[in-house]
Amino acid sequence: MCETTYKNVTHCIFDMDGLLIDTEQLYTTVFNRLLSPYGKEFTWAHKGQTMGFHTHQLIKFLIDTFELPMQPDELHKRLQDDYKEIFPTTKFLPGAEKLLRHLKKHNIPIALATSSSEESFNLKTKHLTEVFDLFHHKVLGGSDPDVKIGKPNPDIFLVAARRFPDCPDPSKCLVFEDAPNGVQAGVSAGMQTVMVPDPNLPKEFTQKATIVLNSLEDFKPEQFGLPKFD
């Protein structure tokens, strides 16, 4: 999409995993630790399909795709145990903290919309709370009763928009995502989408985004009518 077609926005909604913090590679590590005894591997082809899934969607995918001999509750416990070990090591990705602080400084309303549950969110961010406290509100799709269906359904972004005090029209909200499912959710919600995909993600998964960047460091707020970086 060419630059002249960008529309001005007033509110920003951010995904979390793989966009703000470096958890996507940690997920892959956990899944392959689980799969290796079965001689199987979670690849980028699998990741492209599952990024942004609710926990229950992911568990069903893993059991069905890799024919795992376990029940959903058993797999959930296995994953949670590994998450507790690995998630406290998360770090911000380049440009994330700078952008959030910039928008907050200029009174641009910002919200978080992540498929993570409250338990998972707390594991990943308890050492990063100062920055995550900048958000006006957080929609934790994995445990929020108002999010009926996970990404690529638009529920999570529409819920996030409604919870701003002024309840903006979706067209005034800019979504930041790294995942194809998240981009589709933003598009379906009637929002423009900034995509920062992992470099390993095949290019065909990026075509629906309004703009595709290599890093949040490359984002120019003024292209969407937001205050320029100082």
UniProtKB/TrEMBL annotation:
Keyword Secreted on entry: no
NCBIfam families: HAD-SF-IA-v3
Pfam families named in the record: Hydrolase
Domain of life, source organism: Eukaryota
Keywords in alphabetical order: Hydrolase, Magnesium, Metal-binding
Catalysed reaction equations from the record: psi-UMP + H2O = pseudouridine + phosphate
Protein name listed in UniProt: pseudouridine 5'-phosphatase
Family note: Belongs to the HAD-like hydrolase superfamily. CbbY/CbbZ/Gph/YieH family.
SUPFAM superfamilies listed in its UniProt record: HAD-like
The keyword Hydrolase is assigned to this record: yes
GO MF entries: metal ion binding; pseudouridine 5'-phosphatase activity
Cofactor: Mg(2+)
Organism field: Trichogramma kaykai
EC number: 3.1.3.96
Broad EC category: hydrolase
